[in-house]
From TrEMBL:
The keyword Hydrolase is annotated on this UniProt entry: yes
Domain of life: Bacteria
Full protein name: Carbohydrate esterase, family CE1
Enzyme class, broadest EC rank: hydrolase
Key words of the record: Hydrolase
Molecular function terms, GO-annotated: hydrolase activity, acting on ester bonds
Amino acid sequence: MKALLIVFINLYFITVSYASENIVLAKAHQIESVILDEQRSFSVYLPPSYNKNSNKVYPVIYLLDGDQTHLKAVAGLVEALSTQRLEQQIQQAIIVAIPNSKNAIRERDFTPTNVNWTFNGKLLEKFENIGNAANYSAFFEKELVPLINKNYRASTKRVLIGESFGGLFASYVLLTNHALFTDYLIIDATYLWDNNFLNRYFHEKQLKNKPLNGNVYFTFANNAKAFGEIGETNYQWGLAFAEKLKAHSSDNLVINQRYFEDETHGTVAALSWYYGLKSLLNR
């Protein structure tokens, strides 16, 4: 499966020239964010049929950590899986890839609290000027998503993809602003953050008694060998978080998950995109 997947992606990565005209994957844009007080970049990929049918609307994938490498990978996979050659396993989709700020480390926008990162009383990493997740969520809600809806034929289906700290942010958005996105692909998120923040927040805010909406696909990597107790604890806290959401009484909250025993935190993304998008964008 992994070898076949790599072949598919490579086929769609190649920039082919016909009649001296290069295929353009996506267009880069800038937005002046009042909320974040900075200029942010984003790129928009449009599906092959976008300009052929002016009445058709498309789901939108919002890709965190959306640098060129991630954009090429996800766009190639989405385009491949939505073709007739691969039996149209998923819907075609618009992709909005948002790279991280040039002015700050990525943890600034992905973390919900401004604390040192510790585990069992030991400092894992010390950050400065972090805990900006509430503002970053507001940036999507009030600035970026309205801009995309205004300028592109976007349907009401919005998929948020986040990995590691990006998965932490996606989980935070699900808990605090569940109407912003309809679907979530949460890839091996940083559940260790702030002493089990996500599970504590769920309990402290009594979210089991409040509405939650979303179609969520969790993926987990096998990190016990590489990271020992830290990796195992992150996995256990992630499972506990997924189980809390599974047990929620809302009919509008759908939870699926997959554990990749042969993948680590650094290798799990590609298979997560493949299986997650097949689940969230199935026809």
